[in-house]
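look at this fold:
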Amino acid sequence: MEKIKKDIGHSPDIIIREFKIGTVEIVHAAVIYVDGLADKDLIHHTILQNLMIDLRETRLQEEITSQIIIQQIKEFSLSAGELEIIKDYQTDYEKVYETILSGDSVILIDGSSEAYKIGTKGWEGRGVEEPTSEQLVRGPKDGFTENIRTNTSLIRRRINDINLVFEPIKVGKRSKTEIAITYIKEVANDKIVEEVRERLERIDIDAILESGYVESLIQDETYTPFPTVYNTERPDSVVGGLLEGRVAILVDGTPFVLVVPALFIHFMQSSEDYYQRADISTLIRLLRVGAFLLSLLTPAAYIAVTTYHQEMLPTTLLVSLTAQREGVPFPAFIEAVFMELTFEILREAGIRMPRAVGAAISIVGALVLGQAAVEAGLVSATMVIVVSLTAIASFVTPKFNMAISVRMLRFGFMILAATFGLFGIILGLIILIAHLCSLRSFGVPYLLPFAPFVLKDQKDGIIRLSLWGMKTRPKLISGKDKVRENTPKPSP
């Protein structure tokens, strides 16, 4: 007790409750926990009441020794559901300290070389709510929370299978953050599971404060604008990935769960695609791909056509654009960069401002600044339309991190268009596709199932077949169990 008090007992949130057990043969004991991390009601009912009151009422006989009392405590008196014995803790107190600081309680009994770890985690946390970053019209409304136990239960309730595995691992020398590697045996590829395990075990860092730390430390490629690790707040999205053979990584303290391997087409899909009819889902996916290309290339195409390739425009449209740009003192490239940067600033301001005024600032700011810039002759009205269309198209992408990648690449294509025209855009697309082909996500090609082309996996790419048509799991992602379902085609 003196050593524990010296090491961690000076903090006001470390509670050390000493008490006595027995009536004739008195045994000294103590329970240690952290106020705010442990459930005090649980400690009272399962530990203190049992040992101080109930055990005392058994009227232990005089000949019963302290060792028998210790044996009785271990076998009969602790009614906690989660009990672990820490043997010979005096040689290494690290396990005791880790238990206390993680929210559990430790019982020390005089005369025993064993400490008793009682599961009493019970800190205050946010309840299960609808995800704020991925909202759906049709689908479940529950989302992950900052409590890893709540998150595992949200997955477990959807997959009632003994093959669902949660492998715990502690990462962070000082934070000792709990991480769970989640997969379905035989459905997941064993090589991918082993790769995930090895990459997590290689992490050597002081603390993991959010799953973004883990993502940046285990991703395949650092110098790329494209995300190679998928993150989501939605349990149904994670479960869908697990059923395809992917591996999920749950990090305690964050509602964002990582899913690997992540493919390019994965970021163009949404959970809602599987809750609608196949034809509707296919149309929406085509719209997303079209919006992706619009948000990437619209300003660059405008710059290239108005600067180098005016002959490609109809005469009436060319005359209209020339008349609008007559009083603009800047070339199209400077005009586009100015408007894009202005909109990016407005978007960030709207995100960082309080929610009540954030939307108003972004909308009113865009309207006022756009109108004022056109009236002042700084930009043309067509450029305002182009930038607005680009911004709206960027919001169609379901995943925020993929939309950010497009925002970065857009400026590169604008520079190529201002330098070489349409030839620069084509050159940029060739470089971009070559870069995408070179990327891997945990050994799986990033452009799968398009490069390499896998015919069977086209059923859930840009075009989605009906559920009865998606009989097999993705070829290069899943493990031994390739068959997903055998439901025949519905018929009258």
User: Anything to note?
Assistant: The CA atoms of residues 116 and 465 lie 55 Å apart.
